[in-house]
Write a structure and sequence with these properties.
Layout (H helix, E strand, L loop, with lengths): L4 E3 L8 H13 L4 E4 L7 H9 L6 E4 L2 E2 L5 H14 L4 E6 L3 H6 L8 H17 L3 E4 L4 E5 L12 E3 L4 H10 L2 E2 L9 H14 L8 E2 L2 E6 L3 H21 L3 H23 L3 H6 L3 H7 E4 L1 H13 L6 E3 L6 H10 L5
Parallel strand pairs: 1-2, 1-13, 2-3, 3-5, 4-5, 5-8, 8-9, 9-10, 11-12, 11-13
Antiparallel strand pairs: 6-7
Length: about 325
């Protein structure tokens, strides 16, 4: 398997024309899927619908939408609509997000993320199948409604973003794919063991779950650009560890970087962004990102595949230029 996805953040600093150009390039080069997230910028589905109208083969994936801001019925309708528009190319990437976004932006309690994700997936599966949805759960009670415009795909893929042990087991049990962020290459096999616990519970094999981590990628053109890329990657990592609650802090701590994560958080809390970024060690950087010249980047992606990754999803640090994105997309494409 040589599949690779591409993720682009749809913030306002990237124009529609630029997003379309990137998606068409990825489509022409044989990328498997185009992923876009949402936090407090533009929503994912509008961006993906736009891309659907300008591409032919690349799949269109939410990476991720959260399980709090929409009802599962609305999310089922929306992903089915995207699947219809794209003629069967939609993928639903789900995640609980975090307290900062869910409570600070959407204004709803960030409670029971694991149980909510389970119920969400169960309802969405029923709705997408076209059968009447009868559901009496902890969060939603639904009676005899049926979605009258089902998706093109008989089984629309659902990926779940997870890193914690219980969430990994849930992903293995219910999801078609696993979409981690900042996954340590050295821990992939151990994390897959936790996925397999859930897969076994539902009578499946771990091979039934596509391992598709987001990989921050930066293909450099000279030594100076390499140093700049490392600087951007460190700053991006520091933001996640120091500024996005406990989730990524805990993840890096579990990966053997507890002291470094504490140093990042302490500097971030003091509003010293440079010190926070400098607390990211070379070992931390090398364990989770792809950085170097074109051949080095291809070699590093190969190492992730050897560690157990099925489909890397390439993305870029904040501040990467369009030239860097295009250069990287071409360098690591599944076919050139």
């Amino acid at each position: 398997m040589n599949e690779i996805g591409l993720a682009i953040n749809s913030r306002g600093d990237t124009s529609d024309e630029e997003i379309i150009a990137i998606s068409k390039l990825a489509d022409d080069l044989g990328y498997h899927s185009f992923w876009t997230s949402e936090s407090w910028g533009r929503d994912a589905f509008t961006i993906l619908a736009m891309i659907a109208c300008h591409t032919e083969n690349i799949r269109l994936a939410t990476g991720i939408v959260n399980t709090y801001s929409r009802t599962p019925a609305l999310l089922a309708q929306t992903i089915a609509s995207l699947d219809i528009i794209s003629k069967g190319r939609a993928i639903l990437g789900l995640g609980s997000s975090g307290k900062v976004v869910v409570e600070g932006w959407h204004g709803v309690p960030f409670d029971s993320p694991l149980a909510r994700t389970r119920e969400y997936i169960e309802i969405i599966r029923k709705a997408l199948s076209g059968v009447p949805v009868n559901h009496q759960g902890k969060f939603y009670q639904m009676d005899r409604f049926r979605m009258i415009s089902p998706p093109v795909q008989q089984r629309l893929p659902i990926y779940v973003a997870s890193l914690g042990p219980k969430n990994l087991a849930l992903t293995g049990e219910l999801a078609d794919g696993w979409l981690p962020v900042w996954a340590n290459r050295e821990r992939i096999s151990d994390l897959k063991e936790q996925l397999s616990v859930g897969a076994t519970k539902s009578g499946r094999n771990i091979d039934d779950v596509t391992v598709a981590p987001y990989l921050m990628c930066y293909t450099s053109e000279n030594p100076e650009d390499l140093a700049h890329g490392a600087e951007l990657l460190r700053a991006h990592m520091a933001y996640y560890i120091g500024g996005m609650g406990n989730y990524y802090f805990d993840s890096f701590s579990r990966s053997g970087f507890a002291d470094e994560a504490k140093a990042v958080r302490k500097a971030w809390a003091s509003r010293n962004r440079d010190e926070a970024a400098n607390a990211i060690t070379d070992q931390m950087l090398e364990s989770v990102v792809v950085l170097g010249d074109p051949q080095q980047c291809r070699d590093q992606i190969a190492k992730f595949r050897q560690a157990g990754v099925d489909m890397p999803v390439a993305t870029f640090p904040h501040g990467a230029t369009l030239d860097t994105m295009h250069r990287t997309i071409k360098a690591i494409a599944p076919r050139l």
